[in-house]
Amino acid sequence: MKIVIDAMGGDNAPREIVKGALEALEKNNAFSIVFTGDEKAIRGELSEYSFDSSRVEVRHASEIITNDEAPATAVRAKRDSSLVVGLKVLKEDEEAGAFISAGSTGAVLTGGIMYIGRIPGIQRPALCPAIPNVRGAVTLLCDAGANADCKPAYLSQFAIMATAYGKAAYKMDNPRVGLLSNGTEDHKGDMMHQEAFALLKETDGINFVGNVEGRDIMFGDCDIVVADGFSGNIALKSAEGCGKTVAAILKEAFSKAKMHYLIARKQIGQVKNILDYSRLGGSIFLGLKKAVVKSHGSSRADAIAATVLQAVDVVKGRTVERIAEMLPDSVGE
Amino acid sequence: MKIVIDAMGGDNAPREIVKGALEALEKNNAFSIVFTGDEKAIRGELSEYSFDSSRVEVRHASEIITNDEAPATAVRAKRDSSLVVGLKVLKEDEEAGAFISAGSTGAVLTGGIMYIGRIPGIQRPALCPAIPNVRGAVTLLCDAGANADCKPAYLSQFAIMATAYGKAAYKMDNPRVGLLSNGTEDHKGDMMHQEAFALLKETDGINFVGNVEGRDIMFGDCDIVVADGFSGNIALKSAEGCGKTVAAILKEAFSKAKMHYLIARKQIGQVKNILDYSRLGGSIFLGLKKAVVKSHGSSRADAIAATVLQAVDVVKGRTVERIAEMLPDSVGE
């Protein structure tokens, strides 16, 4: 199995990308790596480490897509970018199972649809991050922002895709699926979500437990939260804002009490750990013919290593095949 | 000025409600109190404190509306409930400026519209909590859940109402208004929010700064976040879920390290303070002819006292009058 990695995407590329990928290589010998990007820069980074060179390839790409560019235009225009070259390798190399980038989210989503394509029957691929929860496990949030305008049928497919992903990559057994709404009662939600609720109750192969609230993503007891991409993104970012605020206040408070920090650092570390969820890996873009994973733009080596190992699990767990198998027969026709 | 208080609403009624209201009475002598509810129970609580009895009235009400009841039915059927009696006092007594309840949110919203009525021209009243932010100030979130299905025109009015409220009760000077969306770029949002964006740009009397993300509610630098009630509620609850998770992890971590807790408790207290935003008062229901404020169901005396003082500021700051003044002339016709 090959994992293709955009070596030029994100704030800390290529240094932390290469370092993290090699860390993952050492931890798991089930795969090899294809880096895409500026060959000279990548080889320069690689020369700093010792590793099994038979498990590392480099494909040169002369361009980089930045966060400032309009995704659709950039993906079309920059055909020799590390992102597009990587997606092409994923598509064309039969051994390639997943592609990872810490670059522009919009470009990863647009490029994924354009070059990899949707699983037959899937109407809208969706972004699905794993968020740490109070139980010490993760909650999958699908869609976290790929589709601002949604129809009930999309949400039914998000539930199917996230269920397959949870079983394949997180060993979830019959994961509980909640619908993100403005209250837990059955009648809650705007009209679209009320229709989605009715449809989710009838969707085969998922364990639908009803409406859930924003607080249930981290503090509740479902495994998967299905959302339209607009409010799913708002939920994710709102929790992130609270987390950043807590982290800032902790930092400020202890800056004047360094000794107290040293004494309590283990306990504070536990809080920081849950707030820094990049350590859990990236957000998979579910619904494509092969796995595409977006790593956080600010990812350092440990986050990249986690994302690479997560991608290996995604491929080994047959996530894409499971999604295709779960779709009703009528859908693919 | 009279502040009318539902003495029977919330988890800790009537004890903490009465205690908190009397605390507020001692801190500010600009107002008097009308308690509604079981007279015997209220007088029993009052007998435990010494206070200026000329500033406290009790109106007997024989019924209580609970959280388990369907709001619209309960508000219609229980005409002698502490909630309905309180709203009637607010409506009929010219000196009464605000009503506070820690009871069922749905019943407070339904009862407010039914008994107090909307300001002429306001299409949909909206719930507007004040959320602590990283700057040590508050961000007003409007609507946080009263209206699941919204139109762009409603959001324009939410911005007007929250601006008036921010100026009146929080001394905000030309408050910056953001539209809650799935990204900060101008083109972000589903179709409804794209239309709302265009309308907000044209709305007179507000200082619109563009789209904001969920993280900006606590971590950003706008003063007011305008949202449809569906995603506004999700944003609020998602931040709350993160906060509850952090609090649970802190508690768990320090339960095994009590001495460390004692040493670092001042710093941990600063985090707890920001997460427990009931200390900031309640959520005002904006757009009614008189002020109706919902206090958190689990409010204790300190939260009730804060809500009462907040209600006094709302009335003194002429919030309702300011909203009416800000509406375009054409709207009220």
Keywords, separated by commas or semicolons:
homodimer, 333 residues, alpha/beta, 7-stranded mixed β-sheet, 5-stranded mixed β-sheet, 17% strand
Q: Percent of residues of chain A in helical segments?
A: 40-55%
Radius of gyration of chain A, CA atoms, in whole angstroms: 20 Å
Largest sheet of chain A: 7 strands, mixed
Number of strands of chain A: 12
**What series of H and E elements makes up the topology of chain A?**
EHEHEHHEHEEEHEHEHEHHEEHH
Return the average pLDDT of chain A rounded to an integer: 94
Q: Show the largest interface.
A: A-B, 61 and 61 residues
Q: How many helical elements of chain A? A: 12
| Largest sheet, spatial ordering of strands of chain A | 3-2-1-4-12-11-5
Overall outline of chain A: globular
Give the termini distance of chain A in whole angstroms.
Answer: 30 Å
Oligomeric state, counting identical vs distinct chains: homodimer
Structural class estimated from helices and strands of chain A: alpha/beta
Which regions of chain A contain 5 or more consecutive residues with pLDDT less than 50? none
Task: Tell me the β content of chain A.
Answer: 15-25%
